Amino acid sequence: MAQWTSAFAEASLGVDKAIGDLAGPCGFAFCMGLGRLWYGRKGQNMDLSAYMMGAGALCFASYLTASLATSPIVAFAGCMVSGLSVGIMWPGSISLTSARMPEGGTAMFALLALGGDMGGTLGPSLVGVCTGTSENNIQDGLLAASIFPVLLVVCLIMVRRSRRRLPPPQTR
C-alpha cells in the first residue's frame, strides 16, 4: 500500500501530484508509526502472533475499504489505516522467527530479508498489473493485493498450530 498511496491520493481525491506525494506516504507512515509506538508501549504483555493476526485482519479490512469504498475520502482513510495495521508485521515477523529459531544466525536473517524484498517487489507489481488491466483503476489493483494480509493470517495460523505440536525448547 505504501508504494501506491501517492498515486491513490492523486487519482481518487483529485489532488495535484505534489499534494498526493505528500499526503499519501506521509499519512501512511504516520499511521504506521502510531501502530509501532502503541505496540512498543503496550505490547509486552500480548501474544505477538495473535496481535499480528489481528493486524492482518485489520489490514485486510483496510484494503477492502480502500478498494471498494465509493467515497474517495473513506477509501483514502482505508489506505491510512493499512499503515496502522502493517506497522507490526515486519518487526513482528523477525521477532517470531528469531524466537522460534534462536540459532538461526545470519542465514536466517538473510532469508527473512530476501522474503521481505520479494514481498516488496511482488505486492506493488501485482497492484500495477491489475491496475493496468482494469483501465487504470487503482482500486481494482488494491483489491487484488488484499490477498497478502490474508496470506499472513493463514501463515500465522499454521505457525501457531505447529507450535502446539512441537516439544518445548530445551535450555542449555
Number of domains: 1
Helix/strand order, N-terminal first: HHHHHHHH
Which structural class matches the secondary elements?
mainly alpha
Our count of helices gives 8
> At CATH's second level, what is the architecture?
Up-down Bundle
Poorly predicted parts = none
In percent, how much strand structure appears in the residues? under 5%
According to CATH, what is the class?
A: Mainly Alpha
> What's the β-strand tally?
0
CATH names the topology as Growth Hormone, Chain: A
Q: What order do the helices and strands come in, and which of them pair?
A:
Elements: H1 5-13, H2 17-42, H3 48-68, H4 72-86, H5 89-100, H6 105-133, H7 138-145, H8 147-165
Helix pairs in contact: 1-2, 1-4, 2-4, 3-4, 3-7, 3-8, 5-6, 6-7
Record keyword descriptors for this entry.
0% strand; elongated; mainly alpha; 81% helix; 172 residues; Growth Hormone, Chain: A
How is this structure best described in words?
- It is a single chain.
- This protein has a single domain (5-165), classed as Up-down Bundle (Growth Hormone, Chain: A).
- It has 172 residues and is mainly α.
- Helix 3 (48-68) runs antiparallel to helix 8.
- It is 81% helix and 0% strand.
- The model has no long low-confidence stretch (mean pLDDT 88).
- The protein has helices at 5-13, 17-42, 48-68, 72-86, 89-100, 105-133, 138-145, 147-165.
